Design the sequence.
């Protein structure tokens, strides 16, 4: 059996209400211990529950805060104390665990984001049921949907593999049914049938389709041909295929149309819509002519612009003479007056520059035109070469050998011209012969079209092939649907059998949990244990569409059985049902991590039921570590009565100190903190005051000093003066006189009542010339420690005392020797 994991201690700092570090031990001696904390509302008790939830949260947040903090400063941002950054404190939660002889622990820093500690993952792996129980969310589980309850309880029992089987079977069943019922594929093929038969047949009817094909297709070709069956083995289909092959061997309409198109592409002399010649020969010859013109013009413009090398010079000179920043009277290069130059004036020079630039511009345009003409001619030659090659092949294949030879001759001449450009090939004979050939082909096309019209054996076989394919597809579709229906019926049987077996297994496990829940409910509600069971967990009915449901019902009375709890039970009873279910589940499934946290779970209970909850925790969960927080003081006192001090620690929050956080009744300001500040020369008077108040409260409680009953708004905030005064009265009444403190010439308790040094540090002074004195504070600290050291047992040296009822003087808490002041030398 695996050794359970227990909590040794946890610490919070900079987290929620806790600014300064505070530690909480969950161990007494060598045994795990539990912790109960009482505090009025808004005093920081829930922040400790938040520390648990945050530490074990996968998302590094609290469920009620969520993940987003848009424009509200909530979400994970709200985890850190609002002053943590200001005080240089890291907001973090630290847990230390023990498993047998092994110790593990890890901090979780709020600033680190979503990294869940390894220690937390280890605990969660041993805890199937969430162990943080908030009183405000208990009702939600009772009133959750049956599906939600099923998923949660299934996770407790590790039903995930069984749930996967159920989900997969249901999903497969839905998919097969959807496929079997689908009409999409068959509808597509029937739409093809309507298209092929020109809307004459819309559903598959072998006779109707055969009659349509014989009447509307075969009768137009050969009335003697009749299909008896729409398939490739039908004798008529074989004849149809043979005639289609013979038809393709002749020059048919398709071949004639292709040849005519090829001739038109090469030799058509007409211009298109843009005025360009359509025939490739005409385009080629036109581009040759255009190139010649472009070459001649470029040569002429080059001669006229022979000084084109000076283009940049003329351009800069033009800009220079246009500038208004210079007033030229002579040439800026040779310093010759403009009147003495060949141009006679500045204006003449500018006119000459403009003329030269104009010549240069015309040359550049001619050069660009030449470049374009060369590219166009190259493209036209290539296009014409390809078209001639296709035309030559097409003519040869159609038995126009002479015409093909003419095209080949011209193509050879064109190829030769493309390599040497000596003599442009003569296209006259080719154009004449292609014109005659086109007329012949057009006449042949018209005769053939008149003979066979729009019906061909090729088209007939194509129609037959489409009908055969539609028939094949529909047969396959209907055959698959039939097999799917058989498979679906078998799968339904298997699914029902499997779910029945799973539900039987789940039902037996639920019965165990149900009995435990019912027993806990009866204990808390103080119902006799031998009464009939009240609470029941019911799986969905066997014929339900969704089997993954668990109903939570109660047998309220003989005529009100299996009813919803929210309709008949009181608020406290509903809370008890939910609490009992969570506690029963934790006890059953979290044996590897026997711990849980109770956050104000008694809100709706009266005094009697609070008492039964306290006794139930004591009797039923002895081996569990429990962290319980409550604002109900009566419940807290009941817990102290029912729960053994050997296993439990009880702590009480009195108020919140803005500089540190929640203050517990056993809070102590550390001597080390005070002395570290003294060594650093920092003001420490306020810390000394706190230390004095804490010690005075402790010793007064140990001695059972009578103090006035506090006002209701601050029942625990005793002032140092009244504590010191009460202690002085008590000691005087018992003839216990404290020795003098060195340097103090009157009773130190009187000095404590005034607290001159301490009050100066913690109270506002309107004297701007006053400032703290580290020497005074150090002296005061030594005096207080000297006085505090007098309150020790003269027998064993311990400093804890008690005064049980009936005793006049306090005695040592350990050796019970009566208290006496030790006379210090």
Sequence:
């Amino acid at each position: 059996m695996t050794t359970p994991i227990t909590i040794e201690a946890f610490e919070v700092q900079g987290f929620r209400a806790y600014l300064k570090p505070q530690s909480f031990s969950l161990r007494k001696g060598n045994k795990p211990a539990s912790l109960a904390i009482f505090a009025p509302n808004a005093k920081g008790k829930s922040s400790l529950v938040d520390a648990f939830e945050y530490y074990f949260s996968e998302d590094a947040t609290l469920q009620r805060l969520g993940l987003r903090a848009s424009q509200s400063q909530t979400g994970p941002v709200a985890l850190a104390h609002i002053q943590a950054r200001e005080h240089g404190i890291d907001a973090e939660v630290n847990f230390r665990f023990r498993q047998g002889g092994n110790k593990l622990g890890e901090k979780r820093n709020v600033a680190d984001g979503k990294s869940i500690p390894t220690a937390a993952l280890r605990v969660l792996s041993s805890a199937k049921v969430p162990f943080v129980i908030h009183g405000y969310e208990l009702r939600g589980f009772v009133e959750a949907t049956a599906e939600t309850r099923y998923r949660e309880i299934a996770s407790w029992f590790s039903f995930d593999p069984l749930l996967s089987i159920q989900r997969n079977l249901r999903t497969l069943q839905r998919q097969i049914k959807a496929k079997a019922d689908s009409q999409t594929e068959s509808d597509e093929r029937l739409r093809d049938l309507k298209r092929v038969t020109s809307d004459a047949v819309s559903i598959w009817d072998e006779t109707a389709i055969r009659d349509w094909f014989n009447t509307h297709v075969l009768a137009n070709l050969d009335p003697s041909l009749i299909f008896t069956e729409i398939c490739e083995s039908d004798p008529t289909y074989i004849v149809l295929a043979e005639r289609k092959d013979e038809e393709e061997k002749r020059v048919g309409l398709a071949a004639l149309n292709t040849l005519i198109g090829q001739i038109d592409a090469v030799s058509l002399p007409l211009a298109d819509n843009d005025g360009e010649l359509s025939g490739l020969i005409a385009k080629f010859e036109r581009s040759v002519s255009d190139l010649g013109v472009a070459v001649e013009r470029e040569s002429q413009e080059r001669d006229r612009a022979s000084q084109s090398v000076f283009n940049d010079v003329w351009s800069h000179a033009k800009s220079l003479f246009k500038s208004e920043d210079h007033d030229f009277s002579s040439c800026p290069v040779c310093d010759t007056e403009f009147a003495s130059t060949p141009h006679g004036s500045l204006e003449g020079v500018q006119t000459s520059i403009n003329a030269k630039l104009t010549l240069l511009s015309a040359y550049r345009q001619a050069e660009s035109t030449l470049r374009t003409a060369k590219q166009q001619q190259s493209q036209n030659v290539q296009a014409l070469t390809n078209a001639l090659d296709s035309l030559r092949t097409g003519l040869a294949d159609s038995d126009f050998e002479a015409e093909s030879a003419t095209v080949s001759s011209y193509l050879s001449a064109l190829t030769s011209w493309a390599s040497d450009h000596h003599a442009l090939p003569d296209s006259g004979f080719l154009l004449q012969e292609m014109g005659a050939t086109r007329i012949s082909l057009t006449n042949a096309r018209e005769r053939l079209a008149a003979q066979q019209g729009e019906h061909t054996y090729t088209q007939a076989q194509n129609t037959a092939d489409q009908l055969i394919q539609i028939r094949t597809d529909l047969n396959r579709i209907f055959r698959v649907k039939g097999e799917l229906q058989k498979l679906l019926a078998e799968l339904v049987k298997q699914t029902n059998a499997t779910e029945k077996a799973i539900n039987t297994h789940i039902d037996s496990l639920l019965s165990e949990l149900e009995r435990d829940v019912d027993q806990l409910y009866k204990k808390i509600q103080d119902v006799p244990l031998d009464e009939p069971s009240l609470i029941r967990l019911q799986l969905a009915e066997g014929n339900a569409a969704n089997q993954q449901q668990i109903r939570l019902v109660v047998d309220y009375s003989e005529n009100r059985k299996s009813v919803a709890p929210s309709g008949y039970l009181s608020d406290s009873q509903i809370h008890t049902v939910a609490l009992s279910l969570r506690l029963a589940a934790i006890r059953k499934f979290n044996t590897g991590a026997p711990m849980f946290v109770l956050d104000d779970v008694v809100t709706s209970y009266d005094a009697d039921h609070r008492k039964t909850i306290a006794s139930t925790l004591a009797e039923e969960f002895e081996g569990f570590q429990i962290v319980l927080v409550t604002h109900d003081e009566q419940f807290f006192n009941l817990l102290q009565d029912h729960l053994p001090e050997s296993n439990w620690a009880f702590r009480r929050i009195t108020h919140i100190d803005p500089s540190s956080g929640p203050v517990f009744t056993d809070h102590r300001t550390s001597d080390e903190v005070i002395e570290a500040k003294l060594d650093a020369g920092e003001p420490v008077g306020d810390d000394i005051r706190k230390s004095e108040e804490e010690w005075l409260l402790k010793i007064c409680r140990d001695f059972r000093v009578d103090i006035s009953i506090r006002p209701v708004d601050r029942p625990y905030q005793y002032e140092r003066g009244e504590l010191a005064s009460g202690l002085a009265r008590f000691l005087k009444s018992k003839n216990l006189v404290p020795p003098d403190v060195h340097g103090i010439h009157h009773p130190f308790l009187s000095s404590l009542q005034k607290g001159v040094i301490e009050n100066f540090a913690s109270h506002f002074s309107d004297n701007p010339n006053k400032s703290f004195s580290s020497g005074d504070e150090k002296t005061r600290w030594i005096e207080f420690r000297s006085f505090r050291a007098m309150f020790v047992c003269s027998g064993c040296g311990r400093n804890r005392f008690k005064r049980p009822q009936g005793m006049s003087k306090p005695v040592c808490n350990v050796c019970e020797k009566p208290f006496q002041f030790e006379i210090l030398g």
The first strand starts at residue 5 and ends at 13. Confidence is low (pLDDT under 50) at residues 764-770. The longest helix spans residues 457-525.
